[in-house]
Amino acid sequence: MKTHGAAVVALFSVLAVSGQTPPAHLSPAQQKMAWAQKAIEENSERYQPHNDLALALSRRARETSDPAYYAQAEEALRNSFRLAPDNFEGQKVRAWILLGKHEFAQALEAAKALNRRAPDDILVYGLLADAHIELGNYQEAEEAAQWMLDMRPGNVPGLTRAAYLRELFGDIDGAIELMNAAYQRTPYDEVEDRAWILTHIAHLQLMTGKADGAEKVLQRALELFPGYHYALANLARVRIVQQRHAEAIDLLRQRFQAAPYPENLYGLAEALEQAGRLQEAKVAYADFEEKARREMDWADNANRELIFYYADHAQKPAEALRLARHEAERRRDVQTLDTYAWALCVNGEYAEARKQIESALAVGIHDAKFFYHAGAIASKLNDQATAARYLTQSLDLNPVSEFSTAARKALATVSYPAAGVAGRDHR
């Protein structure tokens, strides 16, 4: 995705200007853009409306997954800083933009500077939590999120971050509970925020194979925010579980049309391959590779997808590992560690692969993909007991995940060292 994964729900208050109300058919971000632009027209020498416009543009970037809005937001901030150099609210929006552009290290430094200026600003702790999460500094992220909830119990930005951390720490039910609490506290007219929360609840349900529940939640999200690109992607995952591949492909095409970025094309290519439409998949993979390589050196890139493409589809393991090492130098979050571990595995560097996947799992995450990778790596090291344990965990957690077939095949080849494991039924 083109915006950072930890949701920033209701991050700052955008001032509603008295007078005409923007048309109701506009999205929440578009309405706030209109309010801010009207305020600027009335008095262009006030700096705060420029901040409001920058924030609204940043929120529009999440609504649409279009990073071009960040450039417009930065232009609005330049106007703000011209009128009031280094103003605090503008610097908060700047940190948010850095997160959206995936410039996580810079965002962390900006958030730390803001925290020194105002150690009691609840939303600065949200920026700290986001940056730490993306960089893999989970203890620091947890401390920042706890500050948010201690300072204002039940606040929505604190709840969403706490939920995301619960997910990372392996408490999926707890994450759903917190997301539901955030949903209940989110204003009714913030339809994109509400759709985002519902989409993430569906994602959590899909992690444990609850496709039917996820489908219902996603339908609600799409009613709130029609054509929402995040919801389309997750509904496609539901359709794949249901073996409704043509519908999944159609949803992923809609998503790519709405957000035409390489990572979204990769998902479409995989769906085409799963449906047996191999020639179409081949074309999509080639298009994905070309687009992804153009942005390999950008902060916001599709390198994780490109690594898995080279590791699992293109038979270019050395290139997968080169890219994975580059990413691992930049950030140490669990997703990057898992990707790095798999690139090491397909290059035969099994001991180092085990080290990286175990570093990811040590955070506590319960993810069928991670468990499958850990099991496959342990099998390569002839550690049959560990391989059986991880592969079993993958299937127990989500018996219908995209890795379940591979996990079952791998488990069938394991020599079970413990009584009772061989008899487990994973149909």
What's the β-strand tally?
A: 0
Strand content: under 5%
CATH architecture of one domain: Alpha Horseshoe
- The string of secondary-structure elements, in order, is HHHHHHHHHHHHHHHHHHHHHH
Question: Could you characterize the architecture of this molecule?
Answer:
With 427 residues, the chain is mainly alpha-helical. It has a domain at 1-102: Alpha Horseshoe (Serine Threonine Protein Phosphatase 5, Tetratricopeptide repeat), CATH 1.25.40. It is built from 22 helices and no strands. Helix 16 (303-312) packs antiparallel against helix 17 (317-330) and helix 18 (334-346) packs antiparallel against helix 19. The chain is globular, with a radius of gyration of 22 Å. The model is unreliable at 1-22 and 418-427 (pLDDT under 50).
